[in-house]
Amino acid sequence: MSTDTTLRPEAAPTVDAPQDRRSRRSRMAGRAPARPAPVAAVHNVSAATAALLGLVAIGAVLHEPVLIPPLAASAALVHCAPALPLAQPRSVVVGNLLGAAAGYAVAATGQGSSWAAALAAGLTLALTTLARTPHSPACATAVVIVLQEPAPGRFVPLLLGSTVLLVLTAFAASRVRRGAPRYPVYWW
After folding, report:
1. Per-residue pLDDT tens digits for 143-173
2. CA angle 24-27-32, nearest 5°?
3. Hey, how many other C-beta atoms are within 10 angstroms of the C-beta on 5?
4. What is the pLDDT of residues 76-125, one digit of tens each?
5. Rounded to whole angstroms, how far apart are CA atoms 120 and 103?
6. Do residues 100 and 81 lie in contact, with contact meaning Cβ atoms separated by under 8 Å?
7. Of 14, 64, 79, 180, which is least surrounded by CB within 10 A?
8. Cβ atoms of 74 and 92 closer than 8 Å
């Protein structure tokens, strides 16, 4: 067994600078996801937009703002990245409900400030991580609750219904176009 620990100097690379820059750029450019086929992009965007317009229509009938920014982000995930753990039904529904719980818990302290909203978002991240329901828009749900203080008796049922509707529209949309990725990867 050899225990040779002498360091051997390595030869300096003999790559010219323009080649080195080109290869570095190509490595960086190769990390982005592939551009979707035009048909797939139109399908995904149309399905997400239809789901969001559905939430607006429901809100108009109920005279309640049902479409909130976190739900738009949730729609983008379930329709455009259906295989991600963040987009699975468990994460979308339970994650947003955990965000609501964290938001109301922090809001109960009487601090409707940006500091409290940031704390609620961090608490949501901790809860969704522990519950194995990662869903980044849920952090925004907590922020909305702290800053806007919606009545829980109206907001939580609307949030639950909206997230279930997003999941169901993604499920249906994934079955409409031939070759579309199946949603969900798992239900629970």
Report:
1. 999 999 999 999 999 999 999 999 999 999 9
2. 135
3. 5
4. 999 999 999 999 999 999 999 999 999 999 999 977 899 999 999 999 99
5. 5
6. no
7. 14
8. yes
For 51, the token pair is 């789901």
State which H helix or E strand residue 80 sits in. Answer: helix 69-80
Phi, psi of 177 (to 5 degrees): -90, 125
Within 13 A of 180's CA, how many CA atoms are on the CB side?
Answer: 25
**Mean pLDDT of the region 180-184:** 89
Q: DSSP of 95-130, one letter per residue?
A: HHHHHHHHHHHHHTTT--SHHHHHHHHHHHHHHHHH
**How many CA atoms lie less than 13 Å away from 67 in the CB half-sphere?**
17
Determine the average pLDDT of the residues in 30-48: 85
pLDDT at residue 4, as a whole number: 47
Q: Among candidates 87, 97, 68, which has minimal Cα distance to 173?
A: 87
